[in-house]
């Protein structure tokens, strides 16, 4: 009981910290969006911070209460809604992070580059893409509306996958694999786009670094543009996302194949699933001068 209480306290504390950080980033970028030229990338940052805030609220509070011993505070309908919104928010986080990388790659690309033809510079295009992401993830996660049950409504023999207070009980194996395949395709597709856009940004930043080095040797002054600084920040965010995503995937695979599931395994997985949502706002606060000035 003491270990569970300790875990609940830690999870609640870091979730609250992440929520505060994301709300701060959300409010500052909303102000910047309304007061400046309405850069489309600000809208992506706003959506990402909002998504992470919802994710931490919906996941952090139930997980903490369950760790404190209140496993039955949600009925079946509560488990259904909670896990459905968690899955949708997680998917939106992946899609929005990819869009952030893509928009930043287009922003720093040369005017005659083929990337400029993607036409993601306008706020309207970004809004439509974000709306389509929401619809896509809402559809992919629909199976949870039928298969999530509260622990109090199940027999021990029905439990297949533990998550402290709710359980996934698949009734149709075929449908389970269909939705799982859709999730894998979504993650692989968006991360493929993220990899291409990130690689292109690394290439442009390398060329930019060479140019700056040449100008320094020529004793000429050259000021690094805000867009180039923003590209560094976005790449750092993507590294953070990939670290938590793939660490969680690899550990989950190892645990499922070689180890029996227990509370420690589940807790490690849960911390990794929210790690990006918790750390991302503080990466932005440290690296984005506009956010850092407001923070101080």
Structure description:
The protein is an all-alpha fold and 296 residues long. It is built from 9 helices and 2 strands; from the N terminus they run H-H-H-H-H-E-E-H-H-H-H. The protein has a two-stranded antiparallel ribbon. Helix 2 packs antiparallel against helix 8 and helix 3 packs antiparallel against helix 4. The chain is globular.
Instruction: Characterize the overall form.
Output: globular
Discrete helix count: 9
Q: Summarize the amount of helix as a percent range.
A: over 70%
The average pLDDT value, as a whole number, equals 80
Based on DSSP secondary structure assignment, what is the total number of beta strands? Answer: 2
- Biggest pleated sheet: 2 strands, antiparallel
Poorly predicted residue ranges: 154-163
Sheet with most strands: strand arrangement: 1-2
Order of helices and strands: HHHHHEEHHHH
Distance between the termini: 40 Å
Structural class from helices and strands?
A: mainly alpha
Q: What percentage of the residues does DSSP assign to strands (E)? A: under 5%
Radius of gyration: 21 Å
């Amino acid at each position: 009981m003491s270990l569970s209480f300790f875990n609940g306290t830690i999870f609640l504390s870091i979730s609250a910290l992440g929520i505060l950080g994301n709300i701060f980033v959300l409010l500052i970028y909303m102000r910047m969006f309304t007061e400046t030229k309405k850069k489309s990338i600000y809208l992506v940052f706003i959506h990402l911070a909002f998504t992470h805030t919802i994710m931490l609220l919906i996941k952090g509070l139930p997980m903490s209460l369950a760790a404190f011993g209140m496993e039955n505070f949600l009925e079946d309908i509560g488990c259904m809604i909670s896990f459905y919104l968690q899955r949708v928010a997680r998917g939106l986080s992946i899609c929005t992070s990819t869009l952030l990388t893509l928009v930043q790659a287009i922003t720093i690309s040369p005017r005659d580059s083929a990337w400029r033809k993607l036409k993601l510079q306008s706020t309207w295009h970004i809004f439509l893409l974000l709306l389509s992401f929401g619809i896509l993830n809402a559809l992919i996660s629909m199976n949870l509306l039928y298969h999530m049950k509260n622990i109090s409504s199940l027999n021990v023999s029905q439990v297949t996958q533990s998550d402290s207070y709710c359980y996934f009980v698949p009734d149709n194996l075929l449908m389970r694999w269909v939705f799982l395949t859709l999730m894998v395709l979504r993650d692989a597709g968006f991360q493929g786009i993220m990899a291409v856009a990130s690689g292109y940004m690394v290439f442009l930043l390398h060329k930019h670094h060479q140019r700056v080095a040449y100008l320094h040797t020529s004793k000429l002054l050259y000021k690094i543009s805000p867009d180039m600084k923003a590209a560094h920040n976005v790449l750092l965010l993507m590294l953070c996302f990939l670290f938590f995503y793939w660490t969680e995937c690899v550990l989950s695979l190892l645990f499922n194949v070689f180890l029996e599931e227990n509370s420690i395994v589940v807790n490690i997985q849960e911390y990794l699933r929210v790690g990006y949502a918790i750390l991302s706002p503080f990466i932005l606060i440290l690296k984005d001068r506009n956010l850092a000035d407001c923070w101080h």
